[in-house]
Amino acid sequence: MYAIIVYDVGVERVSKICSFLRCFLSWVQNSVFEGELTESQLMRIKEGIKEIIDKNNDSVRIYIMRSKDVFKMELIGIEKADTGPFI
Amino acid sequence: MLLSQALFTGTQVNYYIVCPTKLWLFTHQLSMEASSEYVEIGKFIHEKSYSRERKDVIIDEKIGIDFIRDGDKLIICEIKKSKRIEKAHRYQLYYYLYYLRKIKGIENVEGRILYPTQREIEVIEFNEEISREIEKIMEEIRKIISLDEPPKPSRKSYCKKCAYFEFCWV
Amino acid sequence: MKKNFYILRNGKLIRKGNTIYFIYEKSEEKVFSAEIDGEEMEVETEDISDKQEYEKRVLPIEQISSLFIYGRVSLTSGVISFLSKNNIPVHFFGYYGNYESTLMPKEMLLSGEMHIKQAMHYISQDKRVFIAKRFVEGSAQNILRNLEYYQREGKDLQEEISYITNASFSIENCKDVSQLLALEGAIRSKYYSSFNKILKSFEFDERTRQPPENPLNAMISFGNSLLYATVIKQIYHTQLDQTISFLHEPSERRFSLALDISEIFKPLLVDRIIFKLVNKDIIGEDHFVKELNSCLLNNKGKEIFLREYDEKLQTTIKHRDLGRNVSYERLIYLECLKLCKHFLGIKDYKPFVIWW
Prior knowledge:
The structure holds 3 protein chains of 3 kinds.
Chain A: E1 2-8, H1 11-21, E2 26-29, E3 32-36, H2 39-52, E4 59-65
Antiparallel strand pairs in A: 1-3, 1-4, 2-3
Helix pairs in contact in A: 1-2
Chain B: H1 10-18, H2 20-27, H3 37-48, E1 57-59, E2 63-65, E3 67-70, E4 74-79, H4 86-103, E5 109-115, E6 120-124, H5 128-145, H6 165-169
Parallel strand pairs in B: 4-5
Antiparallel strand pairs in B: 1-2, 3-4, 5-6
Chain C: E1 3-7, E2 11-16, E3 19-25, E4 54-59, E5 64-69, E6 73-75, H1 77-85, E7 90-93, E8 99-103, H2 112-123, H3 125-152, H4 158-169, H5 177-193, H6 195-198, H7 215-236, H8 256-279, E9 288-290, E10 295-297, H9 299-314, E11 316-318, E12 325-327, H10 328-343
Parallel strand pairs in C: 1-5, 2-6, 5-7
Antiparallel strand pairs in C: 2-3, 3-4, 7-8, 9-10, 11-12
Helix pairs in contact in C: 2-3, 3-4, 3-5, 3-8, 4-5, 7-8, 7-10, 8-9
């Protein structure tokens, strides 16, 4: 599956959630991560997020799609990060 | 029955019910589990549920129980993902109960299978008929694992979710 | 799904947070040209990942299947143990794109029984020759698939096809491994000589290695090294012993079983890429560096090849026996499983032959 994760969390938790998500997905721009995931990885991500955030104040949205092919992304402006496998 | 003969793992009993081919391969250190997504999910559920309990109690180096609750009765608990191969889970616990009662002499013990994702609990009772069945199964396991080659696999509905699927059918 | 990452730049890998960062100098060109004795980036103890003059790329640890390193890269000991813990092999390649080594994770699947049975198939002359024959057969059949494809496309390859078809009939008559190796060599050189008819540019001339002397040889060597590393990784996921081989001598390389298995997959995973890159004008003279007596892909050329290769590995095909889609990379793993089954006496080994 393909997932897009968007978060809006308290300042003191921003870097925590960001470095947690870096283990699983690619950073595409501020507060947005994307990438291919397996079911077990998604389970671990959800569990990890729950441990980090303050459930009464923070908000994390996970968009889950069967694959990258089911949606179209249009970019306006610049690409903030390179996510390809050739470095 | 002699103590030394009783020592199989619960997983072996489970695999005997699931598939003799899997039992043979697993016993001969031919595991495929590292790359299976289903195994990963199972591991995650095992780690994350009942996190307050003291997990993975090992008895006599062979019997690994997910966790044990001690009260007026000893309750041994196994955490499982789905009821797809319910019968195998049940026999795994029957075997633990057999071992604790017949070999360790602990009478006041009961088993439970916990399905955290379905929020279901199954209570496992033990009786003499099951005891005889377990002894028969142990005899069968001994026969299967001492074969020179693994038994030919037979196609079952749950083959597709098994870590050995490719090995058996390629 | 995990994927391979390919590092062409010079820089260093560090562990930060719970993942891996690749740090490189901003001033460097996107595609850096490595020199034989180029300086490595200094391994500093301080964290340079946030400094102005460096660029960083975060590699999500959970997404990495393996790393292929073509640049000059320093690794900290923290990174080495972290990659090992996460079961990620790192393959290193030299100046010519030649395979140098693999940093293998410490966890391994081991089975004493498999080890002994694999060795028994090597020790027995008959058993060894049986398996060696299968490798030559698989290689010849897949070569024929490629030639037949271009024959249908209108190239006149009848002579090569009948030569290789006849040669493959005589595989069974070979008495020992040296005869098989000679036959395999003859098939390959006939096949390579057909490249001039298949390809619309570049001359083949003859096969040259270490160093390759012209662009075609450069691509063949580059691709074969890449495939060799890919096969090593797949063998690693089984209980097979990397060093016990059948067609090649076990002493030939560190991981000689990978040499055997590679033979079967070269036509699908290396040669077809070369045909496509050349015939579709994706790669040309300006993607090579020519030196006195050698020729190699420059970094732009390497990136083009790697991109094509990575896509190829991920291409899927419906497997007839399994009834599910498998990637070309997975086909190599399945080949390893078939060898396991052969050693255990479950099913005689039949090599993979392109069936589509």
